[in-house]
Structures are given as structure tokens and as C-alpha cells.
Amino acid sequence: MGDQYSGIELLKRPLVPLTFLVSGLFLTTGLPGIAATVAKVKENITLDGVFYDNPQVILKDYLDVFEPYERFKRGELKNRGRLIVDLDHKPLDILAGTILEIKQELLRRELGHINSALCGQYHCTICCQGPLEEEENSFFELPLTEEEVPLFPLPGIDTTLTRSANAYAEPPLMRNDQPFYKTEPALYRWRQGWGLILTRGSFCPNLNRDTGRCLIYEKRPGVCRWPQTFPMVLEKVFDPEGVQGIASANGVSLNDLTDKDHYYVSQEKILAVWDCPYVQEYKDDIIRFAELSSLEPVFRRNKK
User: What residues make up the domain containing 243?
Assistant: First the structure.
């Protein structure tokens, strides 16, 4: 889907209004599935001033995202899986939580296409290097999954101390008798998971500094696919004790949760990193994209 349109065309044609129409039709009619519902949408449609040319083609790569709606309609979606809460930390019901999970995944994929299309034209390596000497930050962290760690030929530090801390803890973790961020770049297994720490003036080992190209582009980790503009419909919070406390206070059985280490807060935001040149150039379009997606746009710097 992303290959058919330029990045700015995708940014100006957000999917949420279209998918809101489709999911509403499915949940309130007798149509047998999302695919059958999409097939009922007329060939061309305008929603909120946005023209969608052939919705069936636009949505064909996203149909699996809506599978939880089908399970909900069949009465099969009974367990929470994740503990999803509002801003007051009150658990949402299963349908409300499912809607947010679907929206998060939809936007994750959609913004992946947009970021890839817009980022490449700038030949920018801001996200691939640690803070500059004149910047306030002492390091730049890229969170990684367990499976992504082997992609980086750097020392891996996994100790009792690292697993009980995080990169921003005070006092900082010591390594070789100095704060970790004053040593060479490395991979750290923190309490909440792995993080690649790029120290001041350093570069990602997978960056070809002569060409500015990524050596593992096709296999690059998730954090590198959504570095500039990314969804925070749900904020993932690592807090096993918090999960137990919220569940206990609200009568939620821990047996219903497949993820007992995290809870997820409904934020309904899109975060855009102001360091990025395309975010600065297309600020108004990002704001419009967020508004059409019923999200609050938030702009912030990663490096200061």
C-alpha cells in the first residue's frame, strides 16, 4: 500500500476516518466479517474533507488488524490480555480497550509507511548518533527487543545491577568506575528491557558514515522504523507491582491477564520528534493528520 503513494500523500490521507466507518458498519450490521464490510464501501468516498480512492485497495493490507473485532462480535473476546486503563488508572472494558489496541496497531503500520517514505529524502542520520558535544544530553537510548539485540555488534551488559535499574536512574549505573554514559556505546539489559546506549559523539555501529546509509536497513529494529512520528494511543508502562495494584483495586483477575508486567494508559496522542527535518517541514500536515485521527499532536525534541 505504501509504495503506491508518496509520503506526503499518505500523510494527507489518514486511515482512521475510513477505518472508523468500516468498523462501525461491521459492529452494527449482520455482515460476516471485516473483508465483507470493506467490500460494501462504495468505490470512492470523501470523509472529513479527505478523498479515499478505492477503499478496498487502501485497506487490503490492514484487514488482519481488525480481527479482534470479529472475535468480539462472535463473543470470543472475553479475556483482557492486557490491562488497559484511562488517565485515572481505571481499567477500560474489553471493547473500549480493543478499539484502542486496534487503533495503535493501525497507526503503527501506517506511520511506518509514512516515516520510511519521508525520511529517506533527507539523507539524515540524526537518529543514528549520540548527542553532539554542544548538546545537554549525555546519551541517546534506543529501546530494543530481545530478538533485535544480535543486530548490533556491541558489548552486551546484562547484570543484576542493570536489571534493577534504568538508563535514567539516579545515581547512574557505574561501569569501569565511571557513569555508564561516559564509556563506549553498549547494549544494556535494563529492568524494562534492552536498550542501545549511544554516548556523546558516538554513532550506531550499523551506520555507514561515508554514505549515511544503514547497513541493516531491511532488518532494522522497530525503533528505527518509527523514529520521527509515532503513535501513543496507548502508553506501555513497565510496572508489575502497578499491574497487581490496579487489578486488585478494581476487581480484575490476574488470571485474565497474559501480560502481567505492563499496564497500558490511554493517551490518544501522536508524538513527533522535532529534531527531524521532515517533522519541521510538514508540521501543519502532521497536526491535521492527528486531528483527523482523533489524536492530540505532541512535538518534542529527543536531543537538547
Answer: 2-123+228-300
